[in-house]
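Re: [ENG-882] Designed sequences occasionally contain unexpected residues at chain ends

Forwarding the minimal case from QA. Structure tokens:
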């Protein structure tokens, strides 16, 4: 238990360093209207001349305190490490890292991708990076709207703030960063998962298919009884989850027994249990 807690703290610190690096190197120097506190800092810098680094650090600490008051002690404990280390890393990196001469489109894309890696690593531990992650959590508590939906809405509104100080081009560049961040967070959260296939099979020969799956693929099955909506006929639905490299063999087995079998396949990116593993557990 103590080892897991230590690993989580290390991963939270690592994730915040990666996030701070992306903001310090790609987002703030090029005034990218990304989501989150960095995007707000860019707008306030343009409108009022406020130092971007100070705005970011202020918002991170202020939002942490608001989250503590509204969301409680458990939230504060999980987010404290992020709220301390992110401003620290951001200040250090901005002080020592030179500004590179690259195109704003590339800065937005790579800033978003790298930020997504950092945020994703922190989320893998069950913690928050703080900052603009906090308003969606508060609104979720009040409205019961999904956090993921609220994150997208708030990030989009943050970018739209750019209309106050920037043109359409800068806003469109900002959306590249928002999209890249969301895309990478998804990939990091799914990293190490068992990329498998969840397959439902409806056949007139369920017993033979089930026996072949057990004996040839060494996979378990679940059987449920269903009624055809058109025919009213009782049918057995076979549910089986197989690894990606077993999928073609499964289809061959089904076709060899019943060419008229009805097969429904969906991707399963997180499968837990005997015969399957989910990597990168913390």
């Amino acid at each position: 238990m103590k080892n897991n807690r230590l690993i989580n703290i290390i991963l939270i610190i690592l994730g915040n360093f990666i996030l701070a690096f992306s903001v310090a190197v790609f987002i703030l120097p090029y005034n990218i209207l990304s989501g989150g506190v960095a995007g707000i800092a860019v707008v306030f810098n343009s409108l009022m001349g406020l130092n971007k680094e100070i705005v970011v650090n202020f918002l991170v600490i202020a939002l942490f305190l608001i989250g503590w008051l509204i969301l409680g002690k458990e939230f504060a404990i999980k987010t404290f490490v992020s709220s301390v280390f992110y401003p620290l890393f951001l200040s250090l990196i901005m002080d020592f890292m030179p500004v590179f001469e690259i195109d704003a489109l590339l800065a937005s894309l790579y800033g978003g991708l790298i930020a997504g890696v950092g945020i994703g690593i922190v989320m893998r531990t069950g913690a928050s990076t703080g900052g603009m992650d906090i308003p969606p959590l508060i609104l979720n508590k009040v409205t019961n709207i999904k956090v993921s939906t609220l994150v997208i809405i708030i990030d989009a509104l943050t970018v739209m703030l750019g209309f106050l100080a920037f043109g359409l081009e800068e806003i469109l560049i900002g959306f590249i960063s928002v999209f890249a961040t969301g895309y990478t967070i998804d990939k990091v959260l799914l990293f190490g998962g068992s990329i498998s296939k969840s397959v439902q099979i409806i056949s007139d020969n369920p017993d033979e298919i089930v026996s072949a799956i057990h004996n040839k693929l060494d996979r378990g099955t679940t059987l449920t009884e269903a009624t055809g909506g058109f025919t009213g006929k009782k049918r057995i639905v076979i549910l089986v989850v197989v690894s990606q490299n077993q999928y073609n063999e499964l289809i061959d087995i089904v076709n060899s027994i019943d060419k008229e079998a009805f097969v429904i396949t969906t991707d399963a990116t997180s499968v837990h249990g005997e015969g399957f593993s989910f990597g990168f557990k913390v």
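QA comment: On inspection the terminal residues look reasonable. The chain has two domains: 2-190, 196-268. Proposing we downgrade this to a documentation issue.
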